[in-house]
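Chapter review: from sequence to fold.
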Amino acid sequence: MNLQMFQSNQFKKKYRFLHRKQLLNMKSRPTLKILITAVVVFISAISFGAIPLAENSKPTAEIVIDKSADQTLKFAADELCLWVKQISGAKLPIVNRVSDSKTKLFLSCNPEVLKKFPDDAEKLKGNDGYAVRTDGNNVYLFASRPKGILNGIYRLLFKNSDIIWARPNKEFGTIYTADPDFSLSQTDYIDIPVYKLRGWQTLGKATNLWQVRNGSNWNAVNVNSPVKRKQGMILEFGGGHNLNSIYITGEKYWDKHPEFFPVIKGKRKRPFKSGAKTQLCFTNPAMTKAFIAELDKLVKANPQYETYRIMIEDNRDQCECAECRKPIRLPDGKILTQNAKNYYSTRFFIWLNTIARYMQKHYPGKRILTFAYFFTEVSPAVKIASNIDISFCPIFKNSKFPMDSPQNAKTNKILKGWLRNTHNITLREYFGLTGSVPRAVDAIALEDWRYANKNGIVKTYSEICSDDYRRKHWGGTSWDANAMYFWVMANATWNPYRDVEEYREEFLNRVFGAASEDMKEYYSLLEKEWLKNPQKSTCNDDAIATWKYLLTPPLRKKCLAALNRAEKKISHPNSKKIFKRIKNNFLDAVKMANTIHVKAYKTNKRPLFDPDFNTGKWAACKAETRFFLHPSGKPYSSKTEVKILYDSYNIYFGIKCFEQPDKMIYRKPVPPQNIFCDGQGFEVYISARWRNRSGYVQVEADPSNNRYWSFCGDKAWKGKWNSKVKVTKDGWSCMITIPWKELGIFPKRNKLIKCMFVRQVNRCTPPSAPPVSINLLGTARHRIGTFAILDLEK
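The token string follows.
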């Protein structure tokens, strides 16, 4: 092919790709801007030429790697080969020796290659960035480490095609346009990440691969996983909360050394009793010695790691022994008492500094990572050792506002306290923990990452939901609502200094094409309403309660109109599937956001407990059967029925939970006490007034008639209520009777009475069984704004 023909063909291919991008952006950019962009890109293509990788689905290039290339670099070559074939149909050969007849893509960390580009090589030292440079028909993608090459091949594909790894779903999560004549037009740039550690703590292989393809270098996959090593991820030994799981375990130490564990309410607490882990007695010298011995063994057995995690357990428990409550004499002579906010943090870091000094002496260069969380949230009154890294967890921060806003003054003050102590900080966030409601925290995340980075922080990761419908709470419905925000955040940890709207526009254009403006309007409508509401937003916001205040009738109409317009314009099959999930999630939310009514039937005679509730006045009641899995809104495998009667003195709930009796798990009868049900249980929430406060009463019973009760979570409420239960051949039944006077409300006096019901399955037993909540449609625990209205028959 001569040069004139080559340039002509490249112009056609470039124009096809450019024309598609013009169509995607027609509404979001002025026509003049599009024309100018077209001319600039066209001139660029003519001036510098494009590098052909495929023509008519046949390879016109080869990928060159060193024979000694490690597994991460080989994986990068395989991924480049995979996606070029997906886009063009051409499978590029991966070779160690070059030929003279083909375009060559060199993927290399070889010092000899780096010498060719000394300025780039200097900038790439100590990071997993990369550079792309062209010399004739040779394209060099090089980095100082193999992970940089892997990052680079994904960005090379992203820059030179319309591919996007939009969400982790294997079936439809990736979108691109096929191009049998695929070529590279952007092959001259360097790209270095702002954050040296970037990632997400999640479960699920597909989700983790999505992270890698969007630039992450840290995840929560087991450190011994060969996949993690192949992907070049940062390796830290020890996992999450781990004091009892890998260091001072109950199995090894409880019988001989109960003094290693904390005194709680006068008794030593054994770890894992009733499912709970414990902290340690941090003032016990023998425990410290045993801890160091355990750490020493682990380091010797796993010498390949730089960082070893020593993470407090997920609770606030502190040892109450006399030594642990003593005032602390600080190095400057000052005395710190238990009343100080940083007393327990100081106590912990005095202990951890001892561990760190041992590591410095015996394993120089090794580091310790620990949480700033719960009782260690605030910086201690002592300087922490230089080989300790802090994973700062702003769990109580309001995610509607950035870290340095007045609304988050307390969290920001705590962070500044840490920055005065050390800059070895990882900002460990919760941006990806949300239910099936759009939570527009990407804009806040970018502001926080810029703020943290300006203060010297170069590491960050966040928890995120798995794109997996099998996970009931952290499942794919969260991705149905938040895929755009998750994608933006995954990419923005590489460079948070770009505008959030640029990232969003990339996502919307590539995923929804001509419908991008309509989808932008849909998200904008919900985001404005979300930000306008004064309710604080933290991780694990209740999706149903949030949808209820978002979906006012006018907003529903506008959102649905935007979705309906978008639906007509989307053409890519995978885009259609992503859109369908979004729309169905919205329609399900509309159903749940409607305040529902349940009916209570009047009786003149106190009803008897009939396990089938089909005699006497019970027979005339219509059963409430609208129970669905929370928060997904999907049906549960077995029916739940509730009938309600009332008279002048009491309200009566007749509850029938259908289940195979041999599959039911529940606690054996225990002495009368206020205790959460374990396994099977049924909860009733109803409006109440107590001690001049308005709220709700919560009562719960299980098949053994173990019971729990409270007023808005306060167990001091000791209202007299009654429950009767029976296990039947088709499940179990319960009748709950609550006097009106114990609720502080009365049928004739109170016009608005609200209630909600939850059927609970497998709350704790066995530990391997996930908790299952089956809620009355559109309601959520402890969120009275979601409760149903109780209509009393006159």
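Two observations follow directly from the output. The radius of gyration is 30 Å. Residues 1-48 have pLDDT under 50 and may be disordered.
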